[in-house]
From TrEMBL, chains A, B:
Lineage: Bacteria, Bacillati, Bacillota, Negativicutes, Selenomonadales
Record-given protein name: Redox-sensing transcriptional repressor Rex
Function text: Modulates transcription in response to changes in cellular NADH/NAD(+) redox state.
Keyword Zinc-finger found: no
One MF annotation (Gene Ontology) recorded for this entry: DNA binding
Keywords attached to this entry: Cytoplasm, DNA-binding, NAD, Repressor, Transcription, Transcription regulation
GO cellular component: cytoplasm
Cell compartments where the protein resides: Cytoplasm
Keyword Transmembrane (UniProt): no
Residue ranges of domain CoA-binding in the record: 79-180
Length: 208, 208
DNA sequence: TAGATTGTTAATCGATTAACAATC
DNA sequence: TAGATTGTTAATCGATTAACAATC
């Protein structure tokens, strides 16, 4: 239907809109203007209207946006209404932190499985989910309908975990290992390379 | 000296160059071309040359870039040679994961302090660093010369931690709480909002 | 020298901002 | 109605890509 390609910049802003709308909802707001959204997000109102207009007409002229309705629609654009099933591979410190990540719930994701290859970790329970052997990934992926695999293993094992996830037919990978992964085109990857953010901060404070 | 403003896009790529150069170095490469860098990073060689040229002339025409030299220079641009001192506030699951983050060392940062407000956590040792009470932040910041504060506390406490960090005269904040923080202009903030990446992944797999 | 590859200028492409008609 | 605010077109700004002279 909508054949226009949406820029990465816009897609990056949508989750921020969603978060801000959630907070506005918590504040009991019924209606919010692009101006107020812009103030809260430190973006121009024009940009927000432009972004939203790419997906439909969600506002009322002279009035603004109904908070509930817009939040629902932005959530739908982001596909959060699919309530994707998530599995985490690598239950080290980061894996544990992610397994306990509260925003999974707030964003509608379900944590359905945890995997590791260390016998000392397999069998443990983290946030009500039991850690399974990585060898069970294939069968679990099917039974539990895993949509997204999170890679939280050391860099040198990341590619082989990615291969296993691809073989298990997952749709997307959320990768925390600082390596460029090779996967088929139809598997989407989002890289969460923490060292980028930290190095960026270093750059900014270096000037002073 | 160099008065040109560097775009955020360029600054985001510099850490990736640095990482790739580090790997090339590990592979024993002496010289690398913008073409080869582009292949490894999935970027065009023109873009890489353009980015680097903003900071100086690091290559040899007809030859390429000396890996060691370029890595040194990119590291210097990013300010990694400052060996910034880092403190983490909030030693929950995420704080522990970050305290054990190996890339701190690879990038030249020093983990010098950990803080929490939970008496059950204060006094524990994580990655050879003892967790102190948040009340000691002010005095420690001075003694230990803390440059960067990492916020790994729940969203509702993030702003007050930021205020304390600002008061303690740190230079930059690496913020993992999903909230927009208010700090003076001269304190730099980099937000590491994991829900953005995950929501983006949701968007990409929703189309299929 | 011939081949390769940088650094840089010019051309293109895309994203943001400005402006304003439509309308609640 | 008058005031407010959206949705959208046009103008501007910035970033990427293409091209090529310089030179190792």
């Amino acid at each position: 239907m909508k054949e226009q390609t949406i820029s990465k910049a816009t897609i990056d802003r949508l989750p921020l809109y969603y978060r801000t709308l959630r907070l506005a909802q918590d504040d009991g707001m019924d209606i919010i203007s692009s101006d107020e959204l812009g103030r809260r997000l430190e973006l121009t109102p024009e940009q927000i209207r432009k972004d939203l207009a790419l997906f439909g007409q969600f506002g009322k002229k002279g009035v603004g946006y109904y908070v509930n309705e817009l939040k629902f629609n932005v959530g739908k654009i982001l596909g959060l209404d699919n309530h994707w099933n998530i599995a985490i591979v690598g239950i080290g410190h980061l894996g544990v932190a992610l397994a306990n990540y509260q925003n999974f719930i707030a964003l509608g994701f379900n944590l359905v499985a945890l995997f590791d290859n260390d016998p000392n970790i397999i069998g443990k329970t983290v946030n009500h989910v039991k850690v399974k052997s990585i060898d069970e990934l294939q069968s679990c992926a099917k039974n539990l309908k895993i949509d997204i695999g999170v890679i939280a293993v050391p860099a040198q094992f990341a590619q082989q975990v990615a291969d296993k996830l691809v073989k298990a037919n997952i749709k997307g990978i959320w990768n925390f290992a600082p390596v460029k992964m090779r996967v088929p085109e139809d598997v989407k990857i989002v890289n969460e390379d923490l060292s980028v953010g930290l190095s960026r901060l270093s750059y900014y404070i270096t000037g002073k």
